[in-house]
Amino acid sequence: MRFLSLLLLAVVSSSSAELRELQTGNDLLYNIQQGKKGDDFSSLYITGYLRGVTDSLILIGSLCPPDGVDMYQYTDIVEKYLNKNPESRNENAVILTALAVGKTFPCKKNQ
């Protein structure tokens, strides 16, 4: 599964100069919206992007989602966060993604 995720990310990352420059929340929101409008490329790109960010956050222990959370749910969470915080959309897309999903699925601290 990890190999498929990496392969998808590699293919999508190398396909478009416009999408490779996904840097801000504005870029992220635009591509989420384009994907939901039926742009298959944007949809696949966002899926790969969110998979990379969320897998990294899980690996370092900064994200603890329950079983069954899928990329559609992560996409909805990030989109909702970006729409509720328009003043932050000029910030780094990775940081905004981490904030959105981290607030939704925080890891419980060991007691």
UniProtKB/TrEMBL annotation:
Domain Rap1a immunity protein, first and last residues per copy: 24-107
Protein name (Swiss-Prot/TrEMBL): Rap1a immunity protein domain-containing protein
InterPro entries membership: Rap1a (IPR041238)
Organism: Salmonella enterica (Salmonella choleraesuis)
Keyword Signal in record: yes
Key words, A-Z: Signal
Leader peptide range in chain numbering: 1-17
Domain of life: Bacteria
